[in-house]
Amino acid sequence: MSEPKKLHPISAVLNALKQLKEMIIPLVAFVVFGSRGSIGGNIILFAGIASIILVLAYGVISWFRYTYRIEENELRIEYGIIVRKKRYIPLERIQSLDLSEGILHRPFGLVKVRVETAGSGGEAEAVLTAVLKEEAIAINNILQDVKNIHAGHFENEEIPPKHEEILYKISGKELLMLASTSGGVGVVLSAVIAFISQFDELIPYEKLFKNIESFYVSGGILFISLLVFIGFFLAWVIAVISTMLKYANFTLKRVDDDFIISRGLLEKRQTTIPLKRVQAVRITENLIRQPLRYASVYIESAGGSGNKDESARVTILPFIKKNKIHDILQSHLEGFISGEVEPAPKRAFIRYCIRGWMMVVPVIIAMLFLLKIWGLLFLLLLPLSAFWSYLVYRDAGWRVDGSQLILTYRSIVKHTVFMSKNKIQSIDMKESYFQRKKNLSTIEATVKSGLGGTGGEVVDLEKADVIKIYSWYSKSVPAVEESPAIEKPEM
């Protein structure tokens, strides 16, 4: 494979489509304004057509100038239209090849290959946008041969067969429940609103809203409410379908020392996560799934692609009964131990309530000022805020078990983060003046994830408990028994 090879010609189309996707709004505006027949409109129209032609030409030329080959145990890539660039990646540095098949790949038997290395950081080290599956398999086989040599296996030595074990495969029922409880309605509505807002100069919104207002007065609230309900229902259906297409055939398996994840119906993806890059395990439960005892499980990975589609946080169990997580993962992830956590002390609850009220009281005051008597309805935010504060308080906790730290906390969803001691980058103790008066403290633990860090933060824990965690990690502070902070004041 030492001769330079080109990507499949469909790569030129994919390059052009990627550029057109970024230019779609300006191009639509060019076409619309250019159709008015004026001289300026014709210039804009011709400019739009010229832009499309240039983008297509760019896709073809960039494909023609892109070559790859494997030579002297390196993946060598050369590309660039005006300035010729070369990238040589030693095969021993490559940790995984992630494969995906888009709609345009599958009819031609092609895949997209993302090359991940230990130091790839925020981006994939290289991307082969369209190669034959056989070619991708050949590259992967060469990569495995190099890994075997570095592992101490000689060329003629019999290599032990790979150990492959399927850990999880999503069922049809789980897929439907995952899609129905994913909360993607807001994302769909936001995308629609953002798209429509691009055409505020073309669509007479003011006249449209006046017509709706007059119809509202004459037709009543029932019909308008029905339209709103239909809009939300359609958004929910779209969100359900898109989630099902994304996670269809989701499978997690372990092959030697790697997790391999495959998923997708229209666009098939395969992601490889070396176990040694796993920094933490995160379990999330939203408000719908938590009462049903279902959760989603992610792993925080060092490195990672860090782009919009795939980041260092990778889904390994998209929808599963919470009591099954431990049985699936305990023998595959170092130090993964589940168990009950120590909760925040009862006297911290009032502080959770105060923080919640600080968010809603300004809103209530503003609504009372603007809406007068109707603003009193916003007083209902006070008990709702107290209930939400109780949920946040109830889900705050910690546990140290052997070499593992467990933190639980709630933002919008409940998070449970499992971190091994040797993977934790830092632990911070924080204490405000008011916390000090209540003998409370905040703990924050961070692990490496992608280009930056992630982890968890739990506020208003018992100060003695925070010192325990800090002592467990650093061994540089006095033992808890010797600390005056361990005395727990009465409520």
Average pLDDT rating: 80
Structural class: alpha+beta
Largest sheet: 7 strands, antiparallel
List low-confidence stretches. Answer: 194-203, 305-309, 476-491
Number of domains: 4
Strand content: 25-35%
Strand order of the largest sheet: 7-6-5-11-10-9-8
Radius of gyration, whole Å? 28 Å
What is the straight-line distance between the termini? Answer: 73 Å
- How many helices? The count is 14
Number of strands: 21
The portion of residues assigned to helices is 40-55%
Shape: globular
How would you explain this protein's 3D organization?
With 491 residues, the chain is of the alpha+beta class. The protein folds into 4 domains: 5-159, no CATH class; 174-247, no CATH class; 251-344 and 396-473, no CATH class; 347-391, no CATH class. It is built from 14 helices and 21 strands. The strands form 4 sheets. The chain has a 7-stranded antiparallel β-sheet with strand order 7-6-5-11-10-9-8. β9 and β10 (258-263) form a beta hairpin. α1 packs antiparallel against α3, α2 (24-34) runs antiparallel to α3 and α5 packs across α8 (221-247). The longest helix is centred in the middle third of the chain and has 27 residues, at 221-247. The radius of gyration is 28 Å and the shape is globular. Residues 194-203, 305-309 and 476-491 have low confidence and may be disordered.
